[in-house]
Fold each of these.
Amino acid sequence: MQHRIVPQVIEQLKPWQRAPAWCVAFSGGLDSTVLLHILATQIPPSSRPALRAVYIHHGLQQAAEDWPAHCQSVCEQLGVALSVIKIKVAQQASVEQAARNARYTAYAEHLQPEELLLMAQHQDDQAETLLFRLLRGSGITGLQAIPRQRALGQAHLLRPLLGIARQELEDYAQQHQLNWVEDPSNAEEYFDRNFLRRQIIPLLKQRWPATLSVLQRATEHMREAQQLLNDLAQLDLQQAQLAAPISWLPLAGLQLDKIAKLSDKRQKNLLRYWLADKTPAIETQHWAGWYDLRDAKADAQPVWRLQQGALVRYQQQLYWLPESWLASVETVQLEITKPGRYVLPGNGVLEVQGELPVLIHIRYRQGGEQMQLPTRGRRDLKRLLQEQNIPQFLRQRIPLAYMQQQLIAVANCSSLQGAKAKQFQLYWYPPP
């Protein structure tokens, strides 16, 4: 007799019938064992893509050393190929978070384009995650808890058990006499999630039997609210998007004067949306950095440092600088005698076109440079770059051409060419 959870899983998988393959994130525990068994035995091979499994070996506890062999045995019984991937977990305050980050990175690197990764989180996990984030004071984004599906690198991730309670999975496992491993760390109530799972959620279910389904419904409400906030952010972004005054600059930007007209709450909503793919979620205490940047004097050069980069201001323009752009570039002393493309360490590529004099030297700005222009005489380079509307953070990176110690050309600035540079052009392609 088919267990009642099987049709629910099959329904979740209908949109993914044309994926190149289904790959199960297999830990050997109850949840992933049930999921793998359903896919391998309850869905005919002719009705699904190729099926395989992947086990991520963290090496964090002695008990786990036997789990790869167990997973291999289960997969052999089911006729499913298994890949075992060993990873190193970074040493940091939260070992759980570090392991999770390393695990998802490994999945993203291992999966093939458009392949579907199937993970076995269930309704109890959803409730646990929602309560955990609520107690941390998370906003609407965090209170959406575990998403049912999302992109993962070039592949996709789906959680087909998310609407099914763990008790249902236990019933299925007992019906089919499945064997699984138990992670001893799950019994350690020192960990917050384990405490919620073992102490708080059972109490809630005693008083309110529908706790799991109600909490899942709450996450769906949060997802709807987040979509409305995203729609509002998109409208605000259309008004604030920076129409790049520098066509060759591959950096995202916003217009500060347009953002400043919004309420504080809409400013934060817009920035959360715009920065979502650039930096992890911004903690409440870090928003003071935004107000400092926004309200700084016109001639200031404020920087709002965040994870993986920073938001900087130049006049009324905001730019996001990735981490690689915040480091100082190496001193460069290129000698060029012929046209071509030249790699600038940590600073993109320089392309030289046209006819060169015998020799030109490529350097970066150090300060105090002057330049002789045919119609303007001798001018300070600092003032010339200001006139070209070159942001401050670019001025130490933009390549300069010298001949016999005389500055004769500035890359990407056709109006900043001396008389000796009329026969060639410098095109700088900054790092992405």
Amino acid sequence: MPLSPADSRSDRNLLHQRGSAQTSTDEPSTTKETFMTAPTGATVRAHHRTSLVDRAREIAPVVAKYAADNDAHRVVADEAVQAMVDCGLTRALQPARYGGEEAHPVEFVEAVIEVAKSCTSTGWVLMLLGVHNWEVSHMTEQLQDELFGDDPTTLLSSSYAPHGTATPVEGGYILNGSWKSSSGVTHASWVILGASVEADGKPLMHNFVVPLAEGRIIDDWFVLGMRGTGSRSVELDQVFVPAHRALDRQILLAQAGPGLKKNDGPLYRVPQGYLYNLVAGAPALGAGWAFYEEYVDQLKKFTRRFDNAKLSEDRVELLRTNDVRVRLDDQQKVALRILDEGYRLAELGQVPGDLEAARGIYDAARTAEAALYVAQQLMPTMSARVVHELNPLSRLYRDLIVARQHFTQNTDFAAATAANLEMGNPAAATFLLSEAERTAAADRSKRLYG
């Protein structure tokens, strides 16, 4: 069942619900009322609680403390994850009725950026944990009860690429195979896995939610960067998944999921492509800012040995440093504006048009590219000492390279989709449906869920 107000474990969570005027006698710092400026420039009333961004900054010392260890051990430290759970960051996009925040997605992304400034991998894991709770809010109430009814702090990892198979059987599906790169899987108790299933006479991608206790985690995350994400593989051997734990992805994109009957706030009407295209982008922004700040700090202390020149006084260095700062700042504003516009339309009961959505997805897909640009421009100007693993710039550079490789940051694919729509050409898209697909998905949802 959904979280009960009488549940002692929910007391703190209920104080953090959106719009709550309650105050806490033991935690006064979480109930102050503030005002903030939205990306659109409008002044809006903040929640009656400490903002997610402030909470992210409060736990920054804990996150930063384990950044190097995360990279070395190839997994985020338990202490860092627990800090994010304890302060509510992992529940930011979770329904209030299940002990979540139902926060504005812009605020959540800003919090992810702050965490990623201290450790890219930790920010990456936080972003994924948050969007997974957003996603399952579109699924059946029975599943949400299983996940959050007894423990609102439940964490889910994912691996969406169809590396394994799903076979329909009576009452559900049999999943079999191995799924790659499930970030944060060692901290989760459930995992979302992707596989193709025939629906309406054609193969359609589905997402399946599976208890990790029924699978096996394979330690195979040996990579260039983002090492601390612990993105290991998940292996299942003929595991039965009941039908209520599965969702057709087109039903999700069509905003026709059964969970929206009760989770009817604007947060859950924000286009998936706007939010998911920042899965890699938001942590990359944090890493980009961290690289910039660390670079400036090192630059101030750096003197070239062969001519004793101070690089911090070199005109080319100064111009280059200012250029990357402006580009990074501009891209962050663009990304947050896209999310804010999606939320504003959702509040009005509207959705962006196809071309507008495709352009928004493309603009979001450029985020990791902009962040990597910072490192690409600044890294070569320093001495060879920056390539040593003990130098934070080395780790951040590697993290940015890997973040840029995520499928959500494929600017070529996103650009082609937007351009084809503008020209009236057929367009393949990861997060967009044709009108016919939307109608068919809504019809399937009605048949399945009433």
Amino acid sequence: MRFGVNYTPRVGWFHHWTDFDADEVARDFDAIGGLGADHVRVFPLWPVFQPNPTTVSAAALRALDRVIELAGERGLDVAVDGLQGHLSSFDFLPSWLVSWHRRNMFVDEDAISATARYLETLARAVAAHPNTFAFTVGNEVNQFTGTVHPDPHPATSGQITTWLDRMLGAIRAGAPGLLALHACYDASWYDETQPFTLEHVARQGDLSVVHSWVFNGTAQRFGPDAFETRAHARYMVELARAFQTDPGRGIWAQELGAPRNVLPDASVPDFIDGTVEQLAQAPDLFGLTWWCSHDVSRALGDFPELEYDLGLIDEHGRIKPEGVRVREAVEAARKAAPADASGAPVIDLDPAADGGRAALAPGGAFWTSYMDQARRGRHPRIRLAENPVHAHDAVPVQEGSAADA
């Protein structure tokens, strides 16, 4: 199991690309090394790197090159995101997608072509570094299609399939040796109106990617110390696995954290321990990447309050108690005997019959059936109706279904 952090620069946050200081990045990576991390996930800001549809900034690419070099000098591998996109409640779309130049980023052919060119250029640049291992299309770009977004870019699921094919194809053209991925927030699991689906999560790209946040209603509904709250990330992993058609496909828990808006300080240590332990026992878990490396500086305004305290390292560069706790939890998980996947209980899922994605959401019928089983001692495997991977599954099936819950 790989362990890393999502890199949030201590000085300037992601605005550091416009006022780049390699010495500050080096200090950040020295501190990250103290967490026992083996990789970082870095976030080029899209409008900085592609200010015009036909232009990629050479200066920004040089800064990214230096970030990857500095990571490598400290034994850190690097995963790069392309489209930022959306980060910590702020949107970063280039000017050629907004206002007078407004185009639908998922549907307009000019926008799609420009975005694909950018991703291919960026992928080719980062692939030149031996410590780069993965390239993600972007950070939770599915939030732009959601009905909750104030300025959405609507698309159908079919259009999203085509868009992802183009974006992943561009990454592979630029960097055929890297893992090519895409990442969604949990609306793809739980919201029936979301055009990015679990089929997209589990079948496009080289790994299935999970972003797990318990402020989605889980901790509010069940409480900060509940089994369900600590099991949420593992549950999302198991749902993603159920929809996979490649039985050997890995799953990356690419974002999870301990948000203080739903977890009081006293609940954080056990949340970390329980979440990491359950994730580490998931078969085929590729890695775990914590959000995030550093707290957002109080000098920066207008962030949701929880963002100022999500880091494992404080804004002065000191590892926090939760940073120590995550490091120790990962160390313990790596030493533990791997889980035996054989003989695990099985729970059937037929999305059409069982209530769709609403049944999968916290408190839904399928969620309840799953958590009842998991609480009895082992996380069940989920057997998806009509998935050929599960057609000859010989593991005994639990009686009943989500519809009976």
Amino acid sequence: MTVTRLAPRPATRGAALPRLIVLHPNDGSLTIARVLARRGVAVHLLTSPAFAHALRSRCVTGTVLPDPAVAPERWTSELRRLADDGGGVLLSASDAATTYLSEHRAAIPAALRSFESADGAHLGLMDKHRLYELAAEAGVRTPWMHLVSTRDELDAVRGALTYPCILKATLGHLAREKAGFGTTRLDSEAELEEKVGILLGLGLDVVLTELVPGPETALEGSVLVRTASGEVALRYGRRKIRQWPVDYGVGSMLESFDVPEAHAHHLRLLEHTGFVGIASCEMKRHAVTGELHLIEINVRIPGNFGLSQACGADGPWRLYASLVGLPLDAQPRPVPGRKVWLPEEDLRTVRFRLQNGLTTVPEVLATFRGVRDAGVLSVRDPLPGLTWAAELATRRPRRLVREALARSSRPWRR
């Protein structure tokens, strides 16, 4: 069932500022809404049930919808309604929403402008195999890679593999939804058989890639917003402090960091593909050669996009203005060492690290120095965070009740 909550629109909304509609919002989207509300922009969220607590924000209006892959007609109908009700501009904050916008752009009213189009640029960078092909064309270094779609193709590449290596679904968001993982490390032939078998059994193509040696601190992130004219409207770098899952996951605490070489490689790839929009690129510096290797690119609002505001780059406004077509002054220089903290994922990784002796409480506390954005948590806009905390406190008891009910419904066996 669709649930709609209407929050007060910003009183200072100007007629010249189109409404922003965010599809599948995340923590970074909340930062965008809070910043833009202060500048008079109305923000509307089309959210998943899992992030419905964002609708408690005083800065947004919104609707809860099912996954666009399951009910694309519901999304198209809602967007047509919004087009008739004042229009606006669209930003995606999930892979599923980006896929929907790219594949259904022709059915969405032209009054709702988006970065995504039918040219396939977004979809090409989302597909891990196609991404590495495009990178090779652009002269951007990548790990070695083998595409596997069938058992026969797996057998054909066995002899070329070295362990450890990395297994990725070509479309990671589908694998995480269906199998519970999108990227994992393989240390043996047995793990290869097990993990690849799971993904192939679900009808998912996979790539097997080199494990670039080096710690997670060797990962460098470049976030760029490229306009239709080829200008870079936003540029900032970041590196992970912690991530979840621990080895190959999403950053849960990150800091702003100078990454000029990563920016150059990233921009070269975007220019080669003609990409327009926001892209978050992750590269890793090889522990032996010192060379940067492309790992992946996300073509949506990152969950850690609050870092673009925390580091002083004015990311929310520059992203919005570049989509709307508003003029921009020179970007402020990002301040290194500013941090963003995403509490839900970070609580998991901190607990894991403490339980496994990978860190200590004083070490964890020390990392909070420099945090300027905390995702869902905000003193000025507290209700989303309070709602999220209440849900978190009751999530485990609800899960235990569901498991108990499931056990009681099973036939008794001796």
